[in-house]
Amino acid sequence: MPVTDVKHDLDELTLTITAEFAAPVERVWQVYADPRQMEKIWGPPDYPATIVDHDLTPGGRVTYFMTGPDGSKHAGYWLVGEVDEPRSFTFRDGFADLDFNPVPDMPLSDNAYTFAAHDGGTRAVYVSRYESAEALQQVLDMGVVEGASGAISQIDVLLAA
């Protein structure tokens, strides 16, 4: 399993996941830069993603939905901030309705994904910052650690293909 560390800090309002991959930084970057590859890893294994819009450039937007085992659809969006290909990107992640309108009573997170060469492969650090301890606790209660860890673990399979 590529996830090597998971920490959440209610005082700092952050969830940080660290993972290591046996692939160069440029290859790991492509997983997020290519919407068809991203579909294979965004969301837990039993909630496959469909990427609808994908603009991983500053000011860009990514929209997606995940389909549950029962056929239910759960949508979300990214508002892309900074992009430093292939080392990092930032985005605001939010829950959306199926028309990709933000759901106002659900938590938003500001995310920074960084990729660095490490031991012949890549160390990825995924940091999500929430607006309040209650918002972070809400996503923790929804299973974000398990879901994100499962999603990140799918990257190894994709990289090996």
UniProtKB/TrEMBL annotation:
Source species of the chain: Actinoplanes couchii
Protein name as catalogued: Activator of HSP90 ATPase
One Pfam family linked to the record: AHSA1
Domain Activator of Hsp90 ATPase homologue 1/2-like C-terminal: 22-159
Family note: Belongs to the AHA1 family.
